[in-house]
Amino acid sequence: MLMQSMIEQIKRSASALRSSEDYAALALAAADARFALLGEASHGTSEFYAGRAEITKRLIESHGFRFIAVEGDWPSCMALNKYVKRAPDAPVSVREAMRAFDRWPSWMWANEEIAELVEWLRAYNDKLPEGDVKVGFYGIDVYSLWESLDEMIAYLGKIGSPALEQAQRAFECFEAHQRDEQSYAVSAGLYGEDCEDDVVRLLAKVRRERHAAAPDAADGEASLSAEVNALVAVDAEAYYRTMVRGDAESWNVRDRHMVDALDLVASFYGPDSRGVVWEHNTHIGDARATDMAREGMVNVGQLTREKYGADAVYAIGFGTYRGTVVAGSSWGAQLEIMTVPPGVPDSWEHLLHEAGAFDKYVLLRNDPEPFRATIPHRAIGVVYDPRRERFGNYVPSVIADRYDAFVFYDETKALRPIEPAREPAPAM
């Protein structure tokens, strides 16, 4: 009875997505927020990227949003940021910029859908009047420990910073692990042989230098980059050190880092700046509305609402009933195009499909009560096994508390990576 009433409510509340123009209502709904959080149920679905791009373009063009922050590494995404801003040392093409994504799963950002958005951003920035702030593209994830140290040493050496010696000391501490995160995780997490003090001192030095500099002496984005890379070093060290325990802390370190990095980017653009965040649903949908809360886990959706206020954050989840997706069968495996089976009975995806087998969106903030039951909601990672999906890919969720709106595609297709994906084997 409850499920049927939810289906009927979806029929009353949902609006069809028939063309790119239909995304304007979603952008308008998020327009007054400081941060528009745009999710995805997988990292390998074309429609999720294309739909987020349509909303993002409208937020930038019509509502004054000035940066995009994504679930990607700062150094790699900086190549795209330089390209869209035509920086003096920018890559000459979007394809060249995407070579910076050389770590698995590279397809998350090195794909045709992102290439199209990046070219749009570059053209948009080119049309801005002289002196206007250009739209930026930034990675706020935590994984780039060694790459961030490399970037810092190069930058601090270039400007003759006193913090260079501390950066080199931190690098030497990690060097014994030969850029192997697992090696460092075991050494630090099990044997207490860590580099925590070195990276904490480095971040403190970089921050003191940056904030002591006179405004006319600051070198803008390069200085921001140094501080974010130092923050990555601190939080990546903590992430890998806590990872071996297998509890919630490494997850929490990562999501807290993403909020701190987001805050640095927003501060760089100014106190009234607004940005779009692209991350998985498990990051942007409020953790308190899921079973994550019982496990002691927090996420970006929860932390930003707590830090900036619920009205300053507008979270839009994305999902699908069936289709294909790019993923790997194990960590580091060759990417494949896999089949996404129909949503399980009584899941959020199943209810949306039963309410009409067409693409749609629901503005949950407008009428939340009917969507406050706890129901299964699909989440697909970069490692995926469709045969076991029923047992590990559904998160119990109160949808109206997790998101402010939801975008649903009845049938989706796989993302288009720059690196070719292996096609699914024919059915036997």
UniProtKB/TrEMBL annotation:
Superkingdom, natural source: Bacteria
PANTHER family the record matches: ESTERASE, PUTATIVE (AFU_ORTHOLOGUE AFUA_1G05850)-RELATED
InterPro entries cross-referenced by the UniProt entry: Emycin_Estase (IPR007815), Hydrolase/PRTase-associated (IPR052036), UCP036794_erythomycin (IPR014622)
GO term, biological process aspect, one: response to antibiotic
CDD domains: Ere-like
The protein, known as: Erythromycin esterase family protein
Signal peptide (UniProt feature, chain positions): none
One of the Pfam families matching this protein, by short name: Erythro_esteras
